[in-house]
Amino acid sequence: MTGAAVRRLAEIAAPERVLTDPERLAGYARDESPGPPLPPDVAVLVRSAEEVAAVLRLARDERVPVTPRGLGTGLAGGAIAAQGGILLSTELMNEEPQVDPDNLVITTRPGVTTDRVRRAAAEHGLYYPVDPASLEDCSIGGNIATNAGGARAFKYGVTTQYLRGIEAVTPAGDIIRYGGRIHKNVTGYDLCAALAGSEGTLAVVTEAVFRLLPLPAHRVDLLIPFDRIAQGVELILRVVRDARLLPAVVEFIERGGIRACNTVLGSGLPFPDAEVQVLIELEGNDRDQVLADTVHLGEMAMKLGASEPLVADNPTDQARIWHARRELAKTLKKLYSEVAAEDIVVPIAQLPATVAFIAELARRHKLTVIPFGHIGDGNIHVDVCREGDRADWLRGSEAFFEELIGFVLGRGGQVTAEHGIGLKKTRWMKRAVGPAELEVMRALKHAWDPDGILNPGKVLPD
Ligand SMILES: Cc1cc2nc3c(=O)[nH]c(=O)nc-3n(C[C@H](O)[C@H](O)[C@H](O)COP(=O)(O)OP(=O)(O)OC[C@H]3O[C@@H](n4cnc5c(N)ncnc54)[C@H](O)[C@@H]3O)c2cc1C
């Protein structure tokens, strides 16, 4: 970037919000995916849609790439300025979200954390149910851009299902608005849906309106231990197909994950020897119904061979379980020198075969593999942890994932359920998406961003 372009940036935003110092840029050189740091040439911390528009117009004039960034918790390298240029951070666009209880919506700026959105809604007895495990650290703008899911997606779905209105800036520097405080809208093409999951490659989100729900009054979490993983998966299938139960959460944590939480976090979770623990959350407004469902679920589990479940029906026990669950990915990174992770999804009927295949593959490649996550959605996070020699681990994990992705695609699954393609997974795209579909995606990208300045190198393969 030229010095003149950096000076123009400082006229658009205040000079103190334009960073060129290598030490400060280092803080924007990574996200939470593995890989070497790639700092931008310059970072600009924007405060308004007008500033975003001016930055994008400057970038277009100068033919400089722009990488939008929320809070950098992405797991696919989407917020890394891999081709240099301008990193556009929305972290300061974080004014208090505005709840509109009469219309059951919340309006928020993109840099607000998901946790703050949820808390603001809860103050009005309302519920924003999307809760990625990173909720305290990630931004709602990042959630829109990745169409984030989370533990409660089983019952409540993912970000796009709550997105009712959006303000965004196109690469041409136009500020567009679509939808609003309305709960249904098919007026033309759905621009909310177009931007959800677009990973910062089509436009920069500067404001959003989300639908809220009533906050359920009662919840109970059950942590159900099984000696054999196949028994746990059988329970999961029965629960997700059960006409009576509609749990909010259907998760699993394999033994290595529980032990990691107990070792690193001192979580003191019970049953560390169980091969797998199934985490199910039941909730509702009728306390007796929730308790009756808890008993029903406990009986189902015990019939399948579970040990006595831990039933967490109070905030202290629930916090202990959820702290461990939410910290699990970070915990593995602390315990092992490196972790390579994928985020596969399969049709739920394929879960038994997929879980068995992962275990067999881990044995064959002699790797420490810890699967966990949102299994009720068919979504499994597969973390391959390094214990020994780096070169062996790299070779082994590469071969492991090659085979795993082949298996998943062969079973009607996909390569990512919620973390996105970003920079790191473009290598799977030609296998995961057909040539005609890829052409449509390229045409879509070209229509929004004809000069290719917004987050180049992400999502679409070369
Ligand atoms: C410990 C841990 C647990 C996680 N658990 C989950 C989980 O349960 N579910 C889940 O879905 N994800 C999870 N994630 C992944 C990550 O938190 C999500 O992808 C999150 O949505 C990223 O938000 P962010 O603000 O950190 O975005 P960033 O990492 O900053 O950016 C992510 C992508 O969004 C784009 N982007 C960011 N802001 C904007 C904007 N305003 N306009 C346009 N594009 C933008 C970026 O260009 C990039 O492509 C987890 C990550 C970690 C580290």
Automatic annotation (TrEMBL):
<dbReference type="GO" id="GO:0016491">
    <property type="term" value="F:oxidoreductase activity"/>
</dbReference>
<protein>
    <submittedName>
        <fullName>FAD-binding protein</fullName>
    </submittedName>
</protein>
<dbReference type="InterPro" id="IPR051914">
    <property type="entry name" value="FAD-linked_OxidoTrans_Type4"/>
</dbReference>
<keyword id="KW-0560">Oxidoreductase</keyword>
<dbReference type="InterPro" id="IPR016164">
    <property type="entry name" value="FAD-linked_Oxase-like_C"/>
</dbReference>
<keyword id="KW-0285">Flavoprotein</keyword>
<dbReference type="InterPro" id="IPR016166">
    <property type="entry name" value="FAD-bd_PCMH"/>
</dbReference>
<dbReference type="Pfam" id="PF02913">
    <property type="entry name" value="FAD-oxidase_C"/>
</dbReference>
<dbReference type="Pfam" id="PF01565">
    <property type="entry name" value="FAD_binding_4"/>
</dbReference>
<dbReference type="InterPro" id="IPR016171">
    <property type="entry name" value="Vanillyl_alc_oxidase_C-sub2"/>
</dbReference>
<dbReference type="InterPro" id="IPR004113">
    <property type="entry name" value="FAD-bd_oxidored_4_C"/>
</dbReference>
<dbReference type="GO" id="GO:0071949">
    <property type="term" value="F:FAD binding"/>
</dbReference>
<feature type="domain" description="FAD-binding PCMH-type">
    <location>
        <begin position="35"/>
        <end position="215"/>
    </location>
</feature>
<dbReference type="InterPro" id="IPR016169">
    <property type="entry name" value="FAD-bd_PCMH_sub2"/>
</dbReference>
<dbReference type="InterPro" id="IPR006094">
    <property type="entry name" value="Oxid_FAD_bind_N"/>
</dbReference>
<dbReference type="InterPro" id="IPR036318">
    <property type="entry name" value="FAD-bd_PCMH-like_sf"/>
</dbReference>
<keyword id="KW-0274">FAD</keyword>
